[in-house]
Amino acid sequence: MSSARLCSFESKVDVFTPQECEQIQEMGHRLPLAPAETHTDEGGKEVDLRGRNCLIYWLTEKEGGEEWRWVFDRIEQHARMLNDTRWGFDILRPKRIQYTSYGVGQFYAAHFDNGSTETEHRKLSVTVQLTDPGKYWGGGLKFWSMNNPRIAGKNQGAMTCFPSYLMHVAKPVWKGRRDCLVTFLDGKKRFR
User: Taking each helix axis from N to C terminus, what angle separates 61-86 and 18-29, rounded to the nearest 10 degrees?
Assistant: First the structure.
Protein backbone atom coordinates (compact mmCIF):
# COMPACT_ATOMS: atom_id res chain seq x y z
CA MET A 1 0.00 0.00 0.00
CA SER A 2 1.38 3.43 -0.91
CA SER A 3 2.31 5.97 1.76
CA ALA A 4 -0.08 8.42 0.07
CA ARG A 5 -3.00 6.13 0.95
CA LEU A 6 -1.75 5.66 4.51
CA CYS A 7 -1.30 9.41 5.04
CA SER A 8 -4.59 10.78 3.77
CA PHE A 9 -8.23 11.20 4.72
CA GLU A 10 -11.39 10.13 2.94
CA SER A 11 -14.81 11.79 3.14
CA LYS A 12 -18.20 10.35 2.32
CA VAL A 13 -21.15 12.72 1.83
CA ASP A 14 -24.75 12.06 2.84
CA VAL A 15 -24.01 9.50 5.55
CA PHE A 16 -26.74 11.30 7.52
CA THR A 17 -29.56 13.39 6.00
CA PRO A 18 -30.04 17.02 7.09
CA GLN A 19 -33.12 15.92 9.07
CA GLU A 20 -31.10 13.20 10.83
CA CYS A 21 -28.35 15.73 11.61
CA GLU A 22 -30.92 18.05 13.19
CA GLN A 23 -32.31 15.12 15.20
CA ILE A 24 -28.80 14.22 16.42
CA GLN A 25 -28.18 17.87 17.35
CA GLU A 26 -31.40 17.95 19.37
CA MET A 27 -30.29 14.77 21.18
CA GLY A 28 -26.78 16.19 21.63
CA HIS A 29 -27.94 19.48 23.10
CA ARG A 30 -29.65 17.49 25.89
CA LEU A 31 -26.28 16.02 26.92
CA PRO A 32 -24.30 17.67 29.76
CA LEU A 33 -21.60 19.23 27.56
CA ALA A 34 -18.44 20.34 29.40
CA PRO A 35 -15.09 21.91 28.47
CA ALA A 36 -12.93 19.42 26.57
CA GLU A 37 -9.90 17.86 28.19
CA THR A 38 -6.73 16.67 26.50
CA HIS A 39 -4.45 13.78 27.46
CA THR A 40 -1.16 14.73 29.11
CA ASP A 41 2.21 13.04 28.66
CA GLU A 42 1.94 11.83 32.26
CA GLY A 43 -1.23 9.84 31.50
CA GLY A 44 -3.68 12.32 33.00
CA LYS A 45 -6.14 14.80 31.53
CA GLU A 46 -6.36 18.57 31.67
CA VAL A 47 -8.36 21.47 30.30
CA ASP A 48 -5.96 23.52 28.17
CA LEU A 49 -7.87 26.33 26.44
CA ARG A 50 -4.76 27.32 24.46
CA GLY A 51 -4.76 23.95 22.69
CA ARG A 52 -8.39 22.87 22.75
CA ASN A 53 -11.38 25.10 23.36
CA CYS A 54 -14.77 23.45 22.81
CA LEU A 55 -17.57 21.67 24.63
CA ILE A 56 -17.90 17.89 24.52
CA TYR A 57 -19.63 14.87 25.97
CA TRP A 58 -18.49 11.26 25.62
CA LEU A 59 -21.50 8.99 25.14
CA THR A 60 -21.23 5.20 25.42
CA GLU A 61 -23.56 3.04 23.38
CA LYS A 62 -25.04 1.60 26.58
CA GLU A 63 -25.73 5.06 27.98
CA GLY A 64 -27.24 6.26 24.70
CA GLY A 65 -29.52 3.23 24.47
CA GLU A 66 -31.98 2.83 21.61
CA GLU A 67 -32.07 6.60 20.99
CA TRP A 68 -28.42 6.59 19.87
CA ARG A 69 -27.93 2.99 18.65
CA TRP A 70 -28.76 3.83 15.03
CA VAL A 71 -26.07 6.56 15.09
CA PHE A 72 -23.43 4.09 16.28
CA ASP A 73 -24.61 1.56 13.65
CA ARG A 74 -24.50 4.06 10.77
CA ILE A 75 -21.06 5.37 11.70
CA GLU A 76 -19.65 1.88 12.03
CA GLN A 77 -21.17 0.75 8.73
CA HIS A 78 -19.72 3.60 6.68
CA ALA A 79 -16.38 3.72 8.52
CA ARG A 80 -15.87 0.02 7.83
CA MET A 81 -16.66 0.50 4.14
CA LEU A 82 -14.12 3.33 3.86
CA ASN A 83 -11.56 1.39 5.89
CA ASP A 84 -11.95 -1.74 3.77
CA THR A 85 -11.39 0.13 0.50
CA ARG A 86 -8.76 2.59 1.75
CA TRP A 87 -6.62 1.36 4.66
CA GLY A 88 -7.53 -2.21 5.63
CA PHE A 89 -6.95 -1.76 9.36
CA ASP A 90 -8.13 -4.48 11.77
CA ILE A 91 -10.75 -2.43 13.66
CA LEU A 92 -13.47 -2.87 16.28
CA ARG A 93 -16.89 -1.23 16.76
CA PRO A 94 -16.77 2.29 18.25
CA LYS A 95 -17.16 2.12 22.04
CA ARG A 96 -18.28 5.72 22.47
CA ILE A 97 -19.07 8.83 20.51
CA GLN A 98 -17.96 12.33 21.40
CA TYR A 99 -20.57 15.02 20.78
CA THR A 100 -18.51 18.15 20.08
CA SER A 101 -19.67 21.75 19.86
CA TYR A 102 -17.49 24.65 18.69
CA GLY A 103 -18.76 28.18 19.39
CA VAL A 104 -17.26 31.49 18.29
CA GLY A 105 -13.47 31.45 18.69
CA GLN A 106 -13.39 27.79 19.67
CA PHE A 107 -10.98 25.29 18.05
CA TYR A 108 -8.70 22.29 18.58
CA ALA A 109 -5.05 22.99 17.74
CA ALA A 110 -2.89 20.63 15.65
CA HIS A 111 -2.78 17.17 17.21
CA PHE A 112 -2.72 13.41 16.66
CA ASP A 113 -5.56 11.23 17.95
CA ASN A 114 -3.27 8.45 19.16
CA GLY A 115 -0.35 10.39 20.56
CA SER A 116 -0.36 9.10 24.15
CA THR A 117 -0.21 5.72 25.86
CA GLU A 118 -3.90 6.08 26.74
CA THR A 119 -4.86 6.59 23.08
CA GLU A 120 -2.32 4.41 21.23
CA HIS A 121 -4.99 1.76 20.44
CA ARG A 122 -6.87 4.19 18.18
CA LYS A 123 -6.56 3.25 14.51
CA LEU A 124 -9.25 5.09 12.57
CA SER A 125 -10.61 8.52 13.52
CA VAL A 126 -14.09 9.56 12.37
CA THR A 127 -15.77 12.97 12.26
CA VAL A 128 -19.37 13.59 11.20
CA GLN A 129 -20.43 17.13 10.30
CA LEU A 130 -23.82 17.92 11.87
CA THR A 131 -24.24 21.64 11.26
CA ASP A 132 -25.35 23.13 7.95
CA PRO A 133 -22.22 24.97 6.70
CA GLY A 134 -24.38 28.02 5.93
CA LYS A 135 -25.01 28.46 9.67
CA TYR A 136 -21.39 29.12 10.69
CA TRP A 137 -18.20 30.73 9.37
CA GLY A 138 -14.75 29.30 9.81
CA GLY A 139 -14.40 25.93 11.43
CA GLY A 140 -13.51 22.89 9.42
CA LEU A 141 -11.08 20.03 9.64
CA LYS A 142 -7.58 20.67 8.26
CA PHE A 143 -5.05 17.89 7.60
CA TRP A 144 -1.37 17.73 6.83
CA SER A 145 -1.29 14.94 4.29
CA MET A 146 2.05 14.21 2.64
CA ASN A 147 3.17 17.78 3.54
CA ASN A 148 0.19 19.17 1.65
CA PRO A 149 -2.37 20.91 3.90
CA ARG A 150 -5.94 20.06 2.87
CA ILE A 151 -9.35 20.84 4.35
CA ALA A 152 -12.14 18.26 4.50
CA GLY A 153 -15.51 19.23 3.07
CA LYS A 154 -18.09 20.78 5.36
CA ASN A 155 -21.21 19.13 3.91
CA GLN A 156 -23.86 18.52 6.52
CA GLY A 157 -24.12 14.78 7.16
CA ALA A 158 -20.69 14.02 5.68
CA MET A 159 -18.28 11.69 7.43
CA THR A 160 -14.50 12.03 7.26
CA CYS A 161 -12.25 9.09 8.20
CA PHE A 162 -8.50 9.12 8.60
CA PRO A 163 -5.73 7.18 10.31
CA SER A 164 -5.49 8.34 13.91
CA TYR A 165 -1.77 9.09 13.44
CA LEU A 166 -2.52 11.82 10.86
CA MET A 167 -1.96 15.34 12.21
CA HIS A 168 -5.04 17.57 11.98
CA VAL A 169 -6.69 20.65 13.45
CA ALA A 170 -10.26 21.82 14.04
CA LYS A 171 -10.10 25.39 12.76
CA PRO A 172 -11.68 28.23 14.81
CA VAL A 173 -15.32 29.11 14.27
CA TRP A 174 -15.78 32.84 13.59
CA LYS A 175 -19.58 33.06 13.55
CA GLY A 176 -22.31 30.66 14.63
CA ARG A 177 -21.77 27.18 16.05
CA ARG A 178 -20.34 24.00 14.50
CA ASP A 179 -21.47 20.68 15.97
CA CYS A 180 -19.96 17.34 15.02
CA LEU A 181 -19.56 13.77 16.19
CA VAL A 182 -16.13 12.28 16.76
CA THR A 183 -15.28 8.66 17.39
CA PHE A 184 -12.46 6.17 17.02
CA LEU A 185 -12.34 2.61 15.78
CA ASP A 186 -9.76 0.87 17.90
CA GLY A 187 -7.88 -2.34 17.33
CA LYS A 188 -6.57 -5.10 19.56
CA LYS A 189 -3.13 -4.89 17.99
CA ARG A 190 -1.47 -1.79 16.65
CA PHE A 191 -1.98 -1.25 12.93
CA ARG A 192 -2.81 -4.65 11.57
Answer: 140
